[in-house]
Amino acid sequence: MTKDFSKFQTIIDQFRGEVSASNFDAKFSAFTESIPTADKFLLKMELKRLASQCNRLIDLRGLVNGQCQIFEHEGRVHFFDELAIQVFEENMQFYGSYTFGVYDAVNETKNNYRVLDDNEEKNAPVMRSQVKDKIVLKKLNYPAKLHAIGQYYNRQEERMNFVTQLTFILENKEVIDATTSDLSIHGCKFRIKSETKLKVGQGIRIQFIGLENEFKFTEDLKLEYQVCNTYHDNSFQFIGVERLNHQVDDSFSQFLTDFIQRNKRRYKINLDNTINAIKTRALEQFVLPKLNELPVFIEKSERGLLPRYALTTHNNQVVFQYWQDENKKSALHCLMKKERIDYLASADAQAKTLLVFSFVHHNNGKCYFYTADEQELKTNAELGRIFLGFAASKSSFAVTQLHYLAVTPAHAESPFTVSNSLPESKEYLNLPLSDDSSSLLDSLKGIIVANDITHEQLISDYQRFTFEPLDKNVLKCFGHKRLKHPPVVDATGINYKNQRKEPRFKYITPVSIGRERERQNVSGMLQNFSTSGMNIELDSPSTLNKGDIVYLSFVSLQKITSEFDLRQLPYEIIQVNKKNTSIRLKVYIKDHQHIGRAFFKLLIEQNKDKLLLDEYIQMIPGLSKALRNTYVNTLINLSLIIQTSGSRYKVESITSSTEESQLLTQMRQLSDQTHYANLYPILNNLQVSNALYGGLQKMLNNDQSVTDILYIAINEDIKNVESAVTTKLASELDSLALKEMFIAWALKHGRFFCIQTKLSRTNEPDMEYLDPELSYISSYSIHKGKKIEQNILSVRGVVQLIDVTKETLFRHQLMLIDE
Length: 819
What we know:
Blueprint: H1 9-14, H2 24-31, H3 37-51, E1 69-73, E2 76-80, H4 82-95, H5 100-106, H6 113-123, H7 129-140, E3 143-148, E4 160-161, E5 165-169, E6 175-183, E7 187-192, E8 203-207, H8 209-215, E9 223-233, E10 236-243, H9 251-267, H10 272-287, E11 294-301, E12 304-312, H11 317-322, H12 332-335, H13 338-346, E13 353-363, E14 366-373, H14 374-379, H15 381-392, E15 398-405, H16 435-442, E16 444-452, H17 456-462, E17 490-493, E18 505-514, E19 522-529, E20 533-538, E21 549-553, H18 555-558, E22 569-576, E23 582-587, H19 595-606, E24 612-613, H20 623-632, E25 638-645, E26 648-656, H21 662-669, E27 676-678, H22 680-683, H23 686-698, E28 706-714, H24 721-724, E29 725-729, H25 736-749, E30 751-761, H26 767-780, H27 782-793, E31 795-803, H28 805-818
């Protein structure tokens, strides 16, 4: 919990296990009359938390002054001492099952070393103050560093760590002594102890007196340099400079070229930019393929600004497919119509978001899209509530949050930091942007990011708006006309590692699926195939499972061949989606041959020019990578990286491309470490951390992301983190009244955030893609290379944080007005 309830311990003991009783509210209100409303509200939520089910294992070995033994309860194995067993059984009688109240009581026994330590501190606060500070720091800080993905700074030449004396001369003739920290042919970085106001772009003259004394130059060289960057580290000021007016064949450049080449093994190459690059490049590989939002590139054409390319992942496919008609043609132009694009593109930095509410009406096999955004709903509040109530009654109801991002064509290229020393065998990994791709990017004017933020509680809340009796004609203004030629939106998949062993081709044809002992078959449509496998969309949910052996019959394909019998071909199911409507299969070989494999191999050979590869945007090589690089440099959502640490999980890294997140700003203010964020608002709640870490253990890397919703209150006037922050899962605030009380209380005392957490298990990294930079680092510092590789391979999951505060406040304000 985020509040100290020790002063209310008597009340907590009084109401142990009584939260679900019918007379709880009355007894609680009577017992807490003298307690302030805010404390009463938090205390009630604490009692509900203590009564909620717990699945955590308890291991007290080494934590208590007692001999621990195995204690098994309901299939869970704990390690308790005698006192812990006694406390466990006593609290089980009050709560009736294993709850967080039982868990907390067992961890707070009087022989627990932490409890003994706390009691000792109370008796001797002065002597134990330092130990107490360490304990509090451990409890209240979850430090994590932000890694700005997409930003890799390449160096044109190798830079050697080398310390030598120099002097630099300012325009006012002032001479200052300094020491180099690294050196390249056309630049260097030096440090000084005193503060000097040097500006980026300022010119200075440098004399390398240390080199002159050691190598006896024939003349005093005062070389012209320009300041490129400055920063402070501890008590030193570091200045990076680049040489001006240099010639490739001048004597000093030739000297440095030879000197660095001969001594770089001795003094070591400065690897800082390559190390930073591979760390962020690796994190990018984990985060991007698990995106839940749908980035859509907007193109300027003769028809105006229209959606043109969408970056798709396994997680955001559901969003992309929602905006498709019955013919699988994109309807994103309904979501991103001209007025919305213009509004988002012209909005200031504080208003680059827009909420869009939608549903899809199906009639005679056709799809009709209806949408209304928050601006349209505000113009007629009564009609807006009618639309929301009717839309929420539909199974296709969705709420989409749109963000607008500017496109910077220069971000399309992401060269390796070792591009000048890349071996020929790896040059294909670092190809420059093609002219065709560059020309196409010039026509792209922005990116609109679509976040589907729909969830059960949201739908339930909007369903409270009444809409009957309803004249459906009033909703026509929200409908979109069906276009004969809708704008084409191509999907390009974000995938760093292509795990397909053979090419896959798109082909749609009916297929009948059966099992040996079942007469009734399942029908579906073949979507794509290779010689060894295929993907099938079923007409309706089935009972098929992974590992089943099924028999496929292709009636339509049989009509084009008499050489092959395409009936009852055996295949094994290797993947079934959660809705049981899509299956992936591979050939199942009973004998030495498989008729299906032979047929599809011949079909591919004879129709190479006609079959369409099931890959993303093949017509322009490199375009997919260019779009991916462009988006990663504008990524606004925060992502937490979950890594293994022994047998446990840890979160020490955050990724984003910007530092403008308000949540990130708050977490940095809560941190006592410079350049770090404190993840306390996210991870302090036990149920949240259990959901993240426990859920990750059960997930596969091809599972859809798992969503939870956090309500966070932060009082900026209170410095103590524990008192300033309150975090609740939406499931803990199990009524509309509790949610509204929490929001009102948070806004009154400080800041309120509503955050969707999207947990995904990560894929294995493509080490071939990372190898050029990793090998370069290892060649100069093998232990650093090994440490980086181990850190990369320890990543297991990613949690995207989607800020849905705007929609939450919008919804609750509407509901208050409606009441």
